[in-house]
């Protein structure tokens, strides 16, 4: 078959498109798209090496020489703040014989020194020292290879593409005013937790895109996360009517409060039709309406940025393929998704607080992280069980309901992006819609 169709990548593209052709619109994906190593390899090639990916925040590299690493699609990206306070990204590969420059996930350096042969690079990526290198070799051509990096309201995105698309800039223009009041440039990391979920990366993203499972699945989260999220009026079951009425009152109060403060809150979304599918909205929290705590009260004594009102609900920003972020008045929690294998996915959760907040005085790490540590553990079970199910020969894709609209949007985006990069149109005339 390879001889007839060409190189292995072409064979893989043909295979993934064949599977997409068999998908029933409005239904979950065929099981093979969650389990097949060849499909996974196509996704790495067509999506993860070509789209903008959330990698972290400026708060994670606050000082010159501070760095973080982001490993995805076989590449290791080094994000570092240089001596001129600029945040840059490079391939974490020495220009000599390819050794990894840094092996820690985060740290701080004066210069970047390769542990193999001591080639030394400045924080701007230029080669400063190479022992015994011939003087005839032009060292200006041996700086670290750059990776495209953009900042959006303190959030950092990179692209491994040789010529990245400009869609992130267009999205940034729409969402920046939602993010900047939280001043992530004046925040610090309070905690970071890595969790490897035993499921395909798409299942992790799909699970996050609905709260159909929240009422019984996330008791800690639904103390403040209204269980009717994502439902229209006519979809609210009678048993949740009281919760929904409380949500409507809180929504109206939040809108009034944000309008008075000049803080944007209305829904903006384009989840299907662009390379960087996104959704952003400020929504109310239950209880005191301030934070992710059992009664909704604030968890951090010092608010972020110049915010003076703790009751600002949650501004949730979602980008495809790999991030969701909750920005509250007292803290921010970011989530990044990174595929490891067809059935393993890294979920990194990072909690940010004001740089002036003092641990043990203004906040307690256990209390700050409790809700999402519990929620992540619960979601990991849901994802694992679903991975087991979609790998079962008995699995037949089922229909989405209205509460799962954003799941369907994600799947439609996925199909559209795969087809766009594979340059083969859908036999249905485009993505499902």
From TrEMBL:
<dbReference type="InterPro" id="IPR015879">
    <property type="entry name" value="Ring_hydroxy_dOase_asu_C_dom"/>
</dbReference>
<keyword id="KW-0408">Iron</keyword>
<keyword id="KW-0001">2Fe-2S</keyword>
<protein>
    <submittedName>
        <fullName>(Fe-S)-binding protein</fullName>
    </submittedName>
</protein>
<keyword id="KW-0479">Metal-binding</keyword>
<dbReference type="InterPro" id="IPR017941">
    <property type="entry name" value="Rieske_2Fe-2S"/>
</dbReference>
<dbReference type="Pfam" id="PF00848">
    <property type="entry name" value="Ring_hydroxyl_A"/>
</dbReference>
<dbReference type="Pfam" id="PF00355">
    <property type="entry name" value="Rieske"/>
</dbReference>
<feature type="domain" description="Rieske">
    <location>
        <begin position="52"/>
        <end position="158"/>
    </location>
</feature>
<keyword id="KW-0411">Iron-sulfur</keyword>
<keyword id="KW-0560">Oxidoreductase</keyword>
<dbReference type="InterPro" id="IPR036922">
    <property type="entry name" value="Rieske_2Fe-2S_sf"/>
</dbReference>
<dbReference type="InterPro" id="IPR001663">
    <property type="entry name" value="Rng_hydr_dOase-A"/>
</dbReference>
